[in-house]
Input
Amino acid sequence: MVQIGYLGPRGTFTKLAVDTAFNGENKQSFDTIPECIDAVSDRSIDIGVVPLENAIEGTVQLTVDYLVHQVRLPIVAEIVVPIQQHLLVGPDFSGDLSSIGDVYSHSHAIAQCHQFLHNEMPDANLHFTSSTGKAAEMISESGGDVAAIGNKLAASEYGLTIHRDNIHDYSNNHTRFVVLASDKQQINITHEVQTEKTSLLITLPSDYAGALYQVLAAFAWRKMNLSKIESRPMKTGLGNYFFIVDVNEPYDDVLFPGVIAELEALGCKVTILGTYPVYLMNI
Output
C-alpha cells in the first residue's frame, strides 16, 4: 500500500488536504517540512505533501528553498485547500477573550488573523509553532488560559473547543500544497482536475540590462500564460537570484522545448520542477 507523508502532527491543514485528496493509504506525519521531503527522497515513504503557498502570506519559503538547494524531487500534483482559521481553547476554559494570555500557532496562521488579534486580543502574547496542529496539541496538554489558532480538524483531534470561529482576516484564503513523488504512477487522486501547470526553475546569466525582460519575452510571444514568477536568493552572494515560474499549461513537445532552447541561448539554466494537475478541494 502507498505510504503518504505530510507535515504533522494530526490536525494540520496539510493533514486535511491529504485526507481529502487520498483515501485508504497509510499516512505518516512529520514534524518539519524538510523531514517529510527527505523521507520521500530516501524512499522511506512514497509520497510527500507539503505546503507551498498561501494566498494571504505568500510562498512557504522553506519548501521552495529545500526543494531547490537540498533535495530535488518532482512536483506531481497540486492540491488547493480553502483555509478557515478558528480560535481553539481547552474544554475546561470558561473565560472570555481578555483572559487569554497566550496564543499559539504557525507564523502564517497568526499573520492570517492579524486584525482579529490586534483588535480583539491586543495584550495576548503570540507564540510561533511548527504547525497549527502542533499548537493545538500543545494547548490540549497544557490547559489554562491559552489558545491556539487552527482548523476544525485540530479541534476534534485534540478535544478542543472552538471559542471563536472564522477569525481570519480575509474570506478568500487558500493554500497550495504540492505532492512530491519519485514515481508519478503512485498518485491516485480521483477529484476533478481544475487545470494543468508546469513549474520551471530559471537561473539567469551574469546580470545585464534587460535579462529578465528577455526571459519573460520567450513566454510572452508564444502566448504562454504565467500564473506566478518569483525570485529567491541563490545563496551564493548578494544580488544572485533564481526564478520560479509557473506556466498554466502542461508540458508539451513544441512550446516548452522552444522556450528552453531560447533561454539557454541567452545563457540561462532551466530546470523543470514538474508538470502536474491542480486539484481544488471543497472542504
